Amino acid sequence: MGVAEEAGNRVPTRWRRDITAVPGLGGLLRNPWPLTIVRLAVLALLVLGIIHGLTHPDDRKGLTLLLFWGLFWPLLTVLVTPTLGNLFCAICPHGFIGRWLSRVGLQRRFPKTLRGGGIGLLILIFGYWFIHYTMPGLLSRSTVATAWYFLGFTVFALTSFYVFSGMAYCKHLCPLGRLLAVHGKLGATQITTRTEDCATCRGFECAKACRYKLSPFRFEANNNMQQCTLCMDCVQACDSVRVQIQPPGVALFKPVKRAASSDYWVLLMVLAVAGVAVQMLHGMQHSGLRDSLPWNVVGGWLNAALGISPGNFDMGRLLGFGLAVAATLLAAWVGYRRAASVAGVDYLVSRQTLAYGMAPAAILGLMPHAITRFLTTDAHVLLNELSALMGGSMSLEPLATRSDPWLGYLGLIAYFGMAWSLATIWKRSCLLVPGSITRLRVWVWASMPVLLYVGIYAFKVWALATYGPAHQH
Known about the structure:
By secondary structure, the chain is mostly helical. The chain has helices at residues 3-8, 25-30, 32-55, 63-84, 87-91, 93-104, 118-134, 143-163, 168-173, 177-183, 195-199, 205-209, 219-222, 233-237, 262-283, 294-306, 315-343, 347-354, 359-364, 367-389, 405-408, 412-429, 437-446, 448-467; strands at 17-18, 189-193, 241-245. The chain has a three-stranded antiparallel β-sheet with strand order 1-3-2. It starts with a helix and ends in a 6-residue tail after the last helix.
């Protein structure tokens, strides 16, 4: 890469802040012990959640449910990762144990044909999303089921760490690993190095320290941190490695070198499931149109014909889930192929370049629901449960109620994500076509998956405004 091209990929210094240079904070990041203590605490919560779930009767508000579905999922993935970066992986208890297990294990090479995160994405789709939509409440309403669910993943993870080298579980098998790596591209945290130091470096301490076999000295030039988990090993190994804060999402405006093809599929499935499907199966379900929605009508008939209770397996939600995924896949297939034709580039190049524009809409669309649920339902009960576990008698009330007017403004986050996505696609269109009417055509076609989500969201808003909440009908 030439000097001019490399310089063009960098974020202007005035927009960035080197937090490793901040007194006190920099010392905490460059010392392994503070992060180790946090990892031990998170590991303790994982063990506590599993043991508590296996030894206590089912409780809709049990500690196990609150830890896994109230704390870990909304705060450390949906909220923190897109804003600050992939911090969940940095403190993940599976990865923490795996760092040591992989040293004493069999250290087999992970099969080349299975690399790339495809298995992890399939596990996420069928091991969580499919269950969540078709068998509502199977996990989130049972402390025992939740405990066995996460115990199973823990055994699978630790076995993988023991068998394979190079933290293969995190890179290729973890259902959240690839997802959070892509989410992190929207975040503000960036690992960079001092170019003048790297030019004369012959030791490559940062790369040698990386258990994931990444090259931190190339992150900035490539505008791609790949599967970096922000574990801080490279920061602690070399003083020339820095942790910088930059404007969230600014990396999405620039070329991404060595991009993984799985990034496209992750972004597309997140938009399909966490965007389109959520609005169809949660948003529209709460409107007066609920009983008239075609997937509910056909699904109800199938449940009755097959003699299956919707509480055990909801055919309507299965049909809605399948329709949302199929519609998003079709919009992307048509949109990116037409964009490639207009731009005169290869389809795969078009898809890989433009797909990052889906990130803000796909990721920010989850935030309003996650924040609302945590503030109104989970936060106070979680604190009360932890207090009781330690012999206390804390009795906090909900931090907010769904009738609070200010909670309604959280919905603006979703609108912001849509606008941000459309702006990002426009910026990325110029990477294929210089400024002209052709670029506008490329932008329109490339925006089809996001425009599908916008249309479904707008229909949900219209249905609620026109027919009111479902309970009124």
